[in-house]
Amino acid sequence: MGQHYTLSLGADMGATTAKLIQKIHANALTDVTILTPTTRAAEMITQGFLAQQKTSFLPRILPLDPNTAGIISEDKKAVINPLQRQLFLYQQILARAKAEEQPLTPEQALKAATSLEHLLDKFMFHHITAAHIQAELNAQNLPEHLTQNLLFVDILLSTYPAYLAAQNLQDPISYQHAQFAAWAEKLTSANMPVYAVGFQDTSPTAAPFLAQIAQSDNGHIITPTLHSPNTPLEDLTPLNPDYTLRHLMQSMAITPQSLHPLGTPKNTPVYTLLAAKHSEEEVQLAALLLKEAHHNGTRAMLVTPTPHFGAAVNAHLSTWGLTADDSAGTPLSQTPAGNFFLLIAELAHSFNLTALVALTQHALFQSSSQNTAAFNSLVLR
Predict the structure, then answer these.
(1) What is residue 249's predicted lDDT score, i.e. its pLDDT?
(2) Residue 97, CB half-sphere, CA atoms under 13 Å: how many?
(3) Residue 368 CB burial class (10 angstroms; 0-12, 13-18, ≥19)
(4) Least enclosed by CB within 10 Å: which of 67, 253, 320, 381?
(5) Is residue 68 within 8 Å of residue 180, measured between CB atoms?
């Protein structure tokens, strides 16, 4: 088994990684493969090597993507077209609705098929099969509506593989699994050093790949900084910065105690964790902190998981006459021009008075006397 490391608090990932690999593999850097979670992380490590100015050669530094590495699985079947897969699910939804004498409109069936597609992806990610569903049905006394839904999923997980086999196709998630498996086999069997650096979390398809790298003789892991290494995993909450990393480490069979610290710890700013009771309080806390920063004459940045949260905070700030600069921009539908064209599209699709009144009261409509005159002559008279 290879060595497993963790970055010390404040250590620069690019420079620290480059220094370690340069020290161990100075005479064979081109034999080393470094895997990173993002292109940005790969660039940081590349800059770390270039800053040392000790070699003209670099390791192979790649983001975690089998396509980038040119990996092709042995399964030569084509991947099912997304539209073809959605059409299959759409037909399954309509067939079920007909069997239960609950007719659906095409729009309702398409919406249900889209939701079912996301569910199917999760099943494929986690290798959930019809046998798992049957075991769940047999083990628990579930309410009738849940039983019916699971039975439908059971039928789907039985018919979908059969459909793929008949069409000589494979699911995109299965193809990803196969690609990662082929890549892991290639890297671990080559007996050349492989480093996975900076992974805080990853997709369900990539987690087994990283686990195989971690457990191989030539595989090495460098994790981000651990903030609570002595806290048991079951005691960590999703708010803890180590939560996803520790779960990833568990899947790789790595414990915090087995990690070797890398780099010199640096003094870093102290962070305060605030736990809100509900989403509204969360918005208020963020807005108050930004208001306090403005009052003190300092600059502040709010990093949000979703644009909706940022919009809610901005709305709260507006009650104090403050406006934050949203780096994500404004959605087209929320701009005056975008809203105007959406109203026109709604009227073109299905005429209704609510949209008509909203259109005539829109600022872009009111700004032109020609629009008002044309509207009066064509509609009101």
Answers:
(1) 94
(2) 16
(3) exposed
(4) 381
(5) no
Tokens of 91: 């037909």
Conformation bin of residue 103: beta by default, left when phi > 0, alpha when psi is -120 to 50: beta
Confidence of residue 137 (pLDDT cuts 50, 70, 90): low
C-beta of residue 90 within 8 angstroms of C-beta of residue 165 = no
Does residue 220 contact residue 3 with C-beta atoms inside 8 Å?
Answer: yes
Alpha-carbon distance of 221 to 2, in angstroms, equals 8
* Count of alpha carbons within 13 angstroms of residue 257, beta-carbon side: 4
Buried b (16+ CB within 10 A) or exposed e, 142-181: eeeeeeeebebbbebbeebeebbeeeebbbebbbbbbbbb
Full-model pTM = 0.64
Helices (H), the chain: 13-24, 39-52, 82-99, 106-125, 130-139, 144-167, 172-189, 207-215, 243-251, 279-295, 307-318, 336-349, 353-360, 363-366, 369-375
| Single-letter amino acid code for the residue at 107 | E
pLDDT score of 147 more than 70: no
User: What is the per-residue pLDDT for 370?
Assistant: 58
Quick check: 67 and 227 in contact, CB under 8 A? no
Neighbours of 6 (CB within 10 A): 23
Cα–Cα distance list, 238 to 161, 247, 283 (Å)? 35, 11, 18
Structure tokens given for 154: 């059971």
> Residues near 46 by Cβ (< 8 Å), separated by ≥ 6?
14, 58, 61
Cα 301 to Cα 325: distance, rounded to the nearest angstrom = 10
Burial zone of 89 (CB within 10 Å; 0-12 exposed, 13-18 middle, 19+ buried): buried
Residue 381: is its pLDDT beyond 80? no
pLDDT at res. 224: 93
User: Are 336 and 361 a contacting pair, CB within 8 Å?
Assistant: no
- Residue 214 pLDDT exceeds 90: yes
Q: Distance (Å, rounded) from C-alpha 132 to C-alpha 155?
A: 12
Residue 13 pLDDT greater than 90, yes or no: yes
Residue 335 binned pLDDT confidence (cut-offs 50, 70, 90) = confident
